[in-house]
């Protein structure tokens, strides 16, 4: 039996995305952890990622001209790119610092709070409405995370605060990306996002690095292995490009399912690679409850998008349209308004629709943990 080439490539890209996303997180944990490579300088590591990704993006945009830059004025850069970069840098700083204090498995469980954070920020910024059904889902997610935290054997309040703060910083970045860039009519793909945002994020990270980590580097014996950091940055950049491939071949539902699968795989792998990353039955129960809330929330948002885009019609006609649309969305990549890591032609997706991958230390973020999925959601909404 012949395997459809397009379908085969789609699964290959999904596999590569899951592999790279999990690998980047585990690699960062190994580099930062005092028990392993022992490079406990998360801001420095993040700055290396920003410098490398910004340089690669510069060569792709300006030297090789593979991607065309957008029309960026000083006013747009100052009012849009700068605040987005500030919160992006903050989310990476806090998220990577959490690796020093809590396990990868527990970090993934806390990331279930991402829809809660984006929904709260979207409501506060006025781009989403408070609804009873969504609120109940957010409450279910929060209860699940609390139960999971209660069951954490090596619970650390400092690491938990860092991670939750990073989640809310990322949520605010996503909301600002939609509010600011959509108003300006800008469309950014992963490469142009890196081109504009990575250098600015590097500058924002320089201040806390100079105050917090530079003195430590001067008095401590910190080992620096070029090949370790180079390969780490390559993996992070490759994750961004894998997201670029995935979002052009899958639908919103597919990528959300892949994200949940990746989270479970990552939790399982972390307990094997890092023996101290022990999970309990209460951890699993709490995380399962949180995931139920996330799945229900995703179902509501996808249903809302479909209802807002499809006219009243017969069930057979709607099924036919859905099938044709899924086929179309798997073949074409259309960038949206949410500069990513993932534009402006009438997408109805909001920041609270996003399931972000904050794990990636680059713009893709983050971990498809969101821009990629947001692009898919908006692509699905606009029927492109």
TrEMBL record:
Q: Residue ranges of region Disordered? A: 334-356
Q: Which residues form the Sugar phosphate transporter domain?
A: 12-298
So which domain of life are we looking at?
Eukaryota
Pfam families on file: TPT
Entry-linked InterPro entries: Sugar_P_trans_dom, TPT_transporter
User: What GO molecular functions are on record for this protein?
Assistant: antiporter activity
Tell me the keywords, alphabetical order.
Membrane, Transmembrane, Transmembrane helix
Keyword flag Membrane:
yes
Single biological process term from Gene Ontology: transmembrane transport
Database matches in PANTHER family: SOLUTE CARRIER FAMILY 35 (PTHR11132)
Which protein are we looking at? Sugar phosphate transporter domain-containing protein
Gene designation: LOC100812996
């Amino acid at each position: 039996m012949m395997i459809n080439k397009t379908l085969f490539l789609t699964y290959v890209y999904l596999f590569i995305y899951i592999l790279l996303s999990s690998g980047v997180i585990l690699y960062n944990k190994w580099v930062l952890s005092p028990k392993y490579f022992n490079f406990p300088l998360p801001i420095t590591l993040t700055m290396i990622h920003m410098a490398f990704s910004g340089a690669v993006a510069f060569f792709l945009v300006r030297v090789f001209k593979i991607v065309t830059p957008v029309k960026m004025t000083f006013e747009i850069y100052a009012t849009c790119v700068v605040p987005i970069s500030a919160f992006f840098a903050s989310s990476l700083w806090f998220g990577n610092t959490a690796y020093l204090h809590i396990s990868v498995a527990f970090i993934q469980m806390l990331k279930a709070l991402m829809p809660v954070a984006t929904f709260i920020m979207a409501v506060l910024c006025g781009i989403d409405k408070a609804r009873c059904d969504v609120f109940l889902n957010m409450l279910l997610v929060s209860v699940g995370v609390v139960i999971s935290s209660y069951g954490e054997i090596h619970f650390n309040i400092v690491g938990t605060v860092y991670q939750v703060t990073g989640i809310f910083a990322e949520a605010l970045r996503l909301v600002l990306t939609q509010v600011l860039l959509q108003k300006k009519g800008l469309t950014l793909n992963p490469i142009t996002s890196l081109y504009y945002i990575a250098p600015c994020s590097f500058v924002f990270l320089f201040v806390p690095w100079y105050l917090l980590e530079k003195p430590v580097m001067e008095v401590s014996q910190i080992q620096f292995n070029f090949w370790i950091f180079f390969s780490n940055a390559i993996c992070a950049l490759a994750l961004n490009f894998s997201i670029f491939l995935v979002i052009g071949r899958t639908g919103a539902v597919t990528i959300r399912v892949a994200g949940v699968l990746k989270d479970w795989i990552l939790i399982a792998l972390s307990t094997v690679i890092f023996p101290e990353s022990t999970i309990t039955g209460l951890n699993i129960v709490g995380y399962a409850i949180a995931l139920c809330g996330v799945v229900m929330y995703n179902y509501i948002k996808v249903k809302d998008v479909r209802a807002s885009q499809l006219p009243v019609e017969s069930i057979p006609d709607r099924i036919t349209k859905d099938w044709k649309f899924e086929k179309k969305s798997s073949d074409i990549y259309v960038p949206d308004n949410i500069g990513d890591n993932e534009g402006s032609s009438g997408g109805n997706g909001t920041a609270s629709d996003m399931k972000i991958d904050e794990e990636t230390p680059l713009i893709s973020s983050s971990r498809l943990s969101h821009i990629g999925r947001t692009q898919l959601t908006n692509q699905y909404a606009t029927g492109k």
